[in-house]
Amino acid sequence: MDTLPARLDSSDERRSKVNLMGLSRQQMEVFFIELGEKKFRAQQVLRWIHHAGVTRIDEMTNLGKSLREQLQVIAEVRPPEIVSQQDSSDGTRKWAIRVDGGGLVETVLIPAGRRATLCVSSQVGCSLDCTFCSTGKQGFQRDLSAAEIIGQVWLAIKSYDAFRPDSDRVVTNVVMMGMGEPLLNFDNVVIAMDLMLEDLAYGLSKRRVTLSTSGVVPALDRLAEVSEVSLAVSLHAPNDALRDRLVPINRKYPIASLLQSCRNYMAAQSDKNRVVTIEYTLIAGVNDTPDHAVELAELLRELPCKVNLIPFNPFSQSDYQRPSGSAVSRFWQVLVDAGYIVTVRTTRGDDIDAACGQLVGQVVDRTRRSGRYRANTEKRVIAAG
Ligand code: SF4
Question: 181: CA distance to ligand 1 center in Å?
Fold first, then answer.
């Protein structure tokens, strides 16, 4: 992580500039040392960008004039662009954000009392195809750059005009749970998460930054070597036969190898009191019976974890249904009786399609998946009509 990324895009002069927004502290130090400057310039620039919200290099007044002029030629501070903003009646705010290449991703801020959790995207679309996920139905365009990932945190704070020194903290928690599988965009996600934790940037505690994965086991093993963020795992099924159907990457990395990788991740943490969050989307008649709950309780016995149950949010390209309240309660009770800490995710931002699993950007699909799902939806609509 300590080498400078190649100049970002080479299509035109503007794009050939280094985007300082996406450089970790180490990368920024290398950048200034290569310019013949002292390392502390990196600290100054990080503070300007991530503490003060400044994007204009000529406003970074504690840099000498000639350095500012030099930086304006070779570098820029370029956040992604907000295309639209929607505010839910419950306080949830969702942004559609345009990224280079024409795609759109979505970012959601969910306030809850004194906390506000930002759900951040890591890819335009997703190359995996979890059957209950609307992002997966859109196919995959590309990975987001580190600047586009951390830029979502920057934009959220900017949108509340909260870079002022007297402002309350707008973002207290970040979850890498938006569009995309973060571990398939490993390097950029790790740089962005480093900036979330970095005191010269957002200074969040490692307990308040969570990476959620569907189970890319080799990348999770690598993550244990470089990061101490909190871990959430999208499990959604208590056995391989069912998980193979719901989360197809399970065919490559089955549950046993995933749970072993989780145990290794927790063992590598300096704080031994932390637990993995197991995400389990409850789908009516598919994985929500008491027998499934018993099987899940047995499966997780050796893992320090808590369980987050997520009643499925229906969307047009899926035939799955939301479970009844009593099915959710029964499932919850089995796990609680088995000694687990279990939460049920309340639906937030439903009126602006910001609820879990409903994030859809605009993906220039490089797979054929989005077309296939669109065709199936049209067939269903015609059949119903
Ligand atoms: S649940 Fe996550 S990993 Fe699965 S398709 Fe959706 S975005 Fe991708």
Answer: 6
